[in-house]
Please model this.
Amino acid sequence: MHHLLVRTVDTDVVVILIGKYHSLTSQHQMAAIWVAFGTGKNFMYLDINAICYALGKDRSTALPMFHSFTGCDTTSAFFGKGKKSVWEAWNAYVEVTEAFNNLMNHPYMIVTVNCKEFQLLERFTVIIYNKKSNLDSVNEARRELFSQKNRTMENIPPTQEALLQHTLRAVYQAGIWATSDHCEQKPPTSEGFGWTLESATKTWRPVCSNLPVASQACSRLIKWLQKRHVHVWRTMLMQEGAVEVHITLQLPM
Model:
């Protein structure tokens, strides 16, 4: 039997090992993999074999993408949604495992709002915020939670466009982990994966959304209506880079 002990204080390393476990044991079937994790009072030994046996193959290989999507060092977490909360959402919507695994098996996949993987992730995001929801669209879930359940802006899902950019960042990070066992990694540029390079500072900045700025978009809409002598009463549900406007119109007689 081959014994492997990895010493780390980084949760990401544990996640990578779990994701690669079945690949490693396919080459070394009798391998026993342990992690010496943490420091001081929080030090512990983690039995990766036992963890992966409990999770099963599908969840083990999907775990890195799950971790990246729900928040890690390079991707943001959903506000107020810790790992325990999103894990419960995964238990409630196991169908999303297919998307996690497809994205791990195809590193750096270009995701669009119309692809199956994103649609599964969008539904999963709805479940994170409301486990009883039957909705598939985060935009519809935002409207329902804000207008009918009196949720604050911090407690509703991101817009679809913001979620897409977040997903692209998660896919990029998961792609790096998926190819971490390659002798030489050759990741593509992160431009287009939810990141953009600021020409002035030469630093990478996350892309929140490619939609028009809410204040500008609403201002143009209101001016257009007022030019046509339409009286407008409006309430706005805004988030960075996106807007949903509820408008009541009184048409001229």
Observations:
- The longest strand covers residues 231-239.
- Confidence is low (pLDDT under 50) at residues 232-253.
- The chain has three domains: 1-55, 60-206, 214-250.
